[in-house]
Amino acid sequence: MKICQITPYWDVTGGITTVVTNLVNELIKRENEVYVLSSDLKKTDDNLFKLSNSFITKNKEILAILRRIKPDVVHVHAHGTLLPATLIYKYFFNNKVKLLCTFHTKPSSGSELTKTQNNRSKLRDAFVNLMMHLLDYNVFVSEDLVDSYKKYMGVTTTKNNYVIYNGISKPNVDEQRALRFKEKIEIEDKTTVFSMISNLQWDLKVIGVGKLIQAFDKFNKQVDSNTKLFIAGDGEFRAYLEKILKEVNNENIILLGQISNVEELLFLTDIYCHISPQEGCSMAILEAMVMEKNILTVHGGGNGEIIKDEINGIIVPYDDNLILEGLIRSYKKKDDDSMKKKAYLDATTKYSWKSITDNYINLYLKE
């Protein structure tokens, strides 16, 4: 098949980038002819097309490229702004093309940190809803995300909605480099390591990290002082966390900032924490699963669809006291391998890129 992937993210670090690049690589392995269109490209070639950032110019470019390469499938990711040209192509130039869009993140209703409301345009939402009706398939990365689009955007389409979770593959970790990193961030052999990886650009995620910091501070002081929490990530709301860190004044909680070696941090981690209710399908949770880590997360977003309490991890309500209880439960079970093994089994079967790509190809070929 000749498949065109259109994505807002390709080179920038992030969950959508990880998903799209892995899907593309898996499709190429299966001898499909794959093209990528994105504004986020550092280099181009015969199969990589850089798009403008301007809405009108970008859609003109998409239409021109599609007319030239004549794909069998056009697969858009994340942004409704990428859809108009693809719909024009389908309905005016090639009605046999399969057209689908994968929606990865929750629509925003505003920012709790900046105290601003996202005054959604009813006209804009109606236009997006219309485009979704015109697509062959709308793909969501969790059931919860389907509900969010219905709630926040009034999405009414149901007949062509599908849920396909994100995929994961086990990273290759250089153990010697990981041990040098362990020394660099001053982890003692008997220290129990907690960690969380988060983009600090999204306010609800940052608020969740703040709740984790406050809960871990109590845990560290009341339960076991020989524990450390490492937070990896950076973004607009980092100062919010720095203020909380100053208030708790706990040297065992370390904000690492953006790091390129998250797999080494996960390798050193005993308990991975993901305290965020704003997730479609968390790549960080899947990464912790495939690396056989104990996992603590909270209900909200797609978390509860991936993690089942005391089966492949621990999941608690998004509540300050219950997050602390979750830390204690996770700590008590840190030497119990059963949840880690089940998490790994899920990651390497249900969420393997082979399985996820099979699901997408089934849609590409669906009559």
From TrEMBL:
Signal peptide: none annotated. One of its GO terms (molecular function) is glycosyltransferase activity. The keyword Transferase applies. This is Glycosyltransferase involved in cell wall bisynthesis. PANTHER family: GLYCOSYLTRANSFERASE. InterPro entries: Glyco_trans_1, Glyco_trans_4-like_N. It comes from Clostridium cavendishii DSM 21758. Residues 182-341 form the Glycosyl transferase family domain. Keywords: Transferase. Residues 14-168 form the Glycosyltransferase subfamily 4-like N-terminal domain. SUPFAM superfamilies: UDP-Glycosyltransferase/glycogen phosphorylase.
